[in-house]
Amino acid sequence: MVNPSLFSNLAIALASSQDVDEIARPLKKYLGITSLVYAKNYHDGSEIRLTNQPAWIEHYYKNALYLNSGFEQHPSKLQSGYAIWSHLTHHQPILSEARCFNIDHGMSIIQKTADGCELYFFGTTSDKPFVANLLLNHLDFLHQFTFYFKEKASHLLRKADQHRIIIPKKFNKVYSQEQGLPANSAINVEKILHFNKLHVGNGVRLSARELDCAKLLLQGKSARLIAQALFLSPRTVETHIKHLKEKLDCHTKTELIGKIHELLLYK
């Protein structure tokens, strides 16, 4: 049986959806984002949610989908970074449920805090697969939006904090690290900045310049910005990216980023 108090406190998130949708207007206008979920998970197991997709959040809790989400692990097991939904193998069942609400092709941003962890889930409709690539190319915009969101939604956040969602013994029920989201499955920019070799397998290795491009790709930079950062011509950068695709057997930029992500996680 669902804990009645859970839905009582969840009412804040459901009732504020129009306000959140208004705050999300810049995301819709510039990136085609139609779904926004803000979550804060505290070390003590309590949590708050704000969203412009109330039907999805109600379904998420009513069907206890949080039990299968690595994002619901104890905040100490997560790290700041971002995670592309299509690359989260263990989350495909949840993503399949989300598609029933026309939520797809998204990304999550994870920000550690002193008292827990804040998460932003950005999604679009199922007919817009290109948005995933847009998100990767506009990480700076998304990070700026997180500050904008907390400013504009400050009154909602205060209200939600007074009525936190509590799932008794939640961390004993949520899938373990091995079953859910690996603790390092979000791309950690600091880690990327310090890796200096990447063995692809079968004797294939990436050159120094290819590694430089790989690092900057994972930070969401376009070929033009990578060229500026490395003092190269955009054409040279495109050639390095082409070689990366060939070496890693990828056909698109999104696929390439996912492959590099995977190699970083499991090397």
TrEMBL record:
Keyword flag Transcription regulation: yes
A GO term for molecular function: DNA binding
Q: Give the source's domain of life in one word.
A: Bacteria
Which is an annotated Pfam family here? GerE
Q: Where is the HTH luxR-type domain positioned along the sequence? A: 199-264
Which GO BP terms apply?
A: regulation of DNA-templated transcription
Instruction: Report the SMART domains cross-referenced here.
Output: HTH_LUXR
Query: What are the UniProt keywords, alphabetically?
Result: DNA-binding, Transcription, Transcription regulation
PANTHER family from the UniProt entry: DNA-BINDING TRANSCRIPTIONAL ACTIVATOR DEVR_DOSR
Protein name as catalogued: Bacterial regulatory protein, luxR family
Native organism is: Candidatus Berkiella aquae
